[in-house]
Amino acid sequence: MPDVRLSSPRGKWILLTTVLGSSMALLDSTVVNVALPRIGRDLDADLAALQWTVNAYMVTLAGLILLGGALGDRYGRRKVFVIGVLWFAAASLLCGLAPNAGVLIAARALQGVGGALLTPGSLALIQATFHPDDRGRAVGLWSGFGGIGAAVGPFVGGWLVDGPGWRWVFLLNVPLALLCAPVAVRHVPESVGGEHEGRFDVLGAALGAVALALVTYALIEAGDGSPVVVVAGAAGLAAAVAFVLVEKRRPHPMMPPDIFASRQFTAVNLVTLCVYAAFGGFFFLAALQLQVVVGWSALAAGTALLPTTALMLLLSARSGELGDRIGPRIPLTVGPLLCAAGMLLMLRVGPGASYAAEVLPALLVLGLGMVTLVAPLTATVLASVDTARAGLASGINNAAARAAGLVAVAALPLLAGMGPEAYRLPDAFDDAFRRAMALCAAVLVAGAAIAWATVRRPAPDCRHPECHTHGSVAVPPLEAETDRAEEHGKGASWPPGTEPG
């Protein structure tokens, strides 16, 4: 039974280790967008290469994050976490030394593999080591410190890009890993997820990642109109179909199809796809718009985006409490509509835009919309499945959000009419950005309509999330499993290879 107390020296070391590990992956997902214009200029890369700089990481992370959690449960959460940290650091070093865009993209894909190992492991270590009386507070501190890291990430990224250079955005991970890994080995006890039977769903994970990669490639390169693009798109769709068929037939699937028998769970994941597709596209293009069109430095652009994260960090707990009182239907409808209004306000952001008059109002409305919807969305995901499957449900929802974001980054420039050199041409980029914001707003309105039509109030005794403080703008929070599975359902167990983490 986990018995480490948060107030003990060991408890503080464990918290430091998990915060450092998760912050590495979180920072890279927030600061790279700010560095994209400088990366493009230094490596003579076109817009497609910048899209791949973001999406190569997301493809492997989204495709393998569920498998990464299962590996930790089977072979040891500390072991897999440390491997993930060191893997991520090695890939970050390769990113920082990349001589061209091709090497950078390959290194980013390797980073995603490391992220898939360490991201679920950081929260699973808290669940597995802290005393039940301290676990909720430990998760809250982990989430809160992660939110602070997300808030300062764009600022630090902008400062590095304008100062030492964009390569330090990646190289900064190396000293963090050299601190995190030894502390984990010395102070964090090893833990596993109990008895396991059957094999890992490696085939399912591979098919999911291949489907995402091929569809992303087809969308990014669609402007060429070559037969290779058509074949890649068709192969990606075929891999997606094969993934569904494999998951139906395997005894221990990575993503059990029967979890979607819950209409509420399916509906909320559809809302997640709409919402986080819009968020992914917005934060990819907004950092470029502020630098390419408005003419701000990387530091100014990164700092300008802070209000959205700050609002989520400060108000997400209250939003969760409001959702508990009035139910999720209204927050999941109003939240996307507020976000859509914020993105439409971004249409006013053009050459010579004023931060106070044009940029800040749009970001405040967007941030309030995100605050309104994120905590109720997570709570509704957990409430729509059995308590024993809450960790799995949270992981699927997190992976769905990442997949939606990477597809949006691939598709939005195509749909908005951005050419390969668009980010070098302020007028052309400004016109395409306006079309893209309108598209993002339309997707958010669709998400609001789905929520209003399908989401209903959960049962009063449903499971509530422990991650009350949430500052990430990229994905919904992962959820730590607790002994509430025993409290609410004696004898409940997780399918082998799908334990929470």
UniProtKB/TrEMBL annotation:
<dbReference type="GO" id="GO:0022857">
    <property type="term" value="F:transmembrane transporter activity"/>
</dbReference>
<protein>
    <submittedName>
        <fullName>EmrB/QacA subfamily drug resistance transporter</fullName>
    </submittedName>
</protein>
<feature type="transmembrane region" description="Helical">
    <location>
        <begin position="80"/>
        <end position="99"/>
    </location>
</feature>
<keyword id="KW-0813">Transport</keyword>
<keyword id="KW-0472">Membrane</keyword>
<feature type="transmembrane region" description="Helical">
    <location>
        <begin position="138"/>
        <end position="160"/>
    </location>
</feature>
<dbReference type="InterPro" id="IPR004638">
    <property type="entry name" value="EmrB-like"/>
</dbReference>
<feature type="transmembrane region" description="Helical">
    <location>
        <begin position="12"/>
        <end position="36"/>
    </location>
</feature>
<dbReference type="InterPro" id="IPR020846">
    <property type="entry name" value="MFS_dom"/>
</dbReference>
<keyword id="KW-0812">Transmembrane</keyword>
<dbReference type="InterPro" id="IPR011701">
    <property type="entry name" value="MFS"/>
</dbReference>
<feature type="transmembrane region" description="Helical">
    <location>
        <begin position="105"/>
        <end position="126"/>
    </location>
</feature>
<feature type="compositionally biased region" description="Basic and acidic residues">
    <location>
        <begin position="481"/>
        <end position="490"/>
    </location>
</feature>
<keyword id="KW-1003">Cell membrane</keyword>
<feature type="domain" description="Major facilitator superfamily (MFS) profile">
    <location>
        <begin position="14"/>
        <end position="459"/>
    </location>
</feature>
<feature type="transmembrane region" description="Helical">
    <location>
        <begin position="359"/>
        <end position="383"/>
    </location>
</feature>
<dbReference type="GO" id="GO:0046677">
    <property type="term" value="P:response to antibiotic"/>
</dbReference>
<feature type="transmembrane region" description="Helical">
    <location>
        <begin position="48"/>
        <end position="68"/>
    </location>
</feature>
<feature type="transmembrane region" description="Helical">
    <location>
        <begin position="267"/>
        <end position="288"/>
    </location>
</feature>
<feature type="transmembrane region" description="Helical">
    <location>
        <begin position="294"/>
        <end position="317"/>
    </location>
</feature>
<feature type="transmembrane region" description="Helical">
    <location>
        <begin position="200"/>
        <end position="220"/>
    </location>
</feature>
<feature type="transmembrane region" description="Helical">
    <location>
        <begin position="436"/>
        <end position="455"/>
    </location>
</feature>
<feature type="transmembrane region" description="Helical">
    <location>
        <begin position="395"/>
        <end position="416"/>
    </location>
</feature>
<dbReference type="Pfam" id="PF07690">
    <property type="entry name" value="MFS_1"/>
</dbReference>
<feature type="transmembrane region" description="Helical">
    <location>
        <begin position="329"/>
        <end position="347"/>
    </location>
</feature>
<dbReference type="InterPro" id="IPR036259">
    <property type="entry name" value="MFS_trans_sf"/>
</dbReference>
<feature type="transmembrane region" description="Helical">
    <location>
        <begin position="166"/>
        <end position="188"/>
    </location>
</feature>
<feature type="transmembrane region" description="Helical">
    <location>
        <begin position="226"/>
        <end position="246"/>
    </location>
</feature>
<keyword id="KW-1133">Transmembrane helix</keyword>
<keyword id="KW-0046">Antibiotic resistance</keyword>
<dbReference type="GO" id="GO:0005886">
    <property type="term" value="C:plasma membrane"/>
</dbReference>
<feature type="region of interest" description="Disordered">
    <location>
        <begin position="467"/>
        <end position="501"/>
    </location>
</feature>
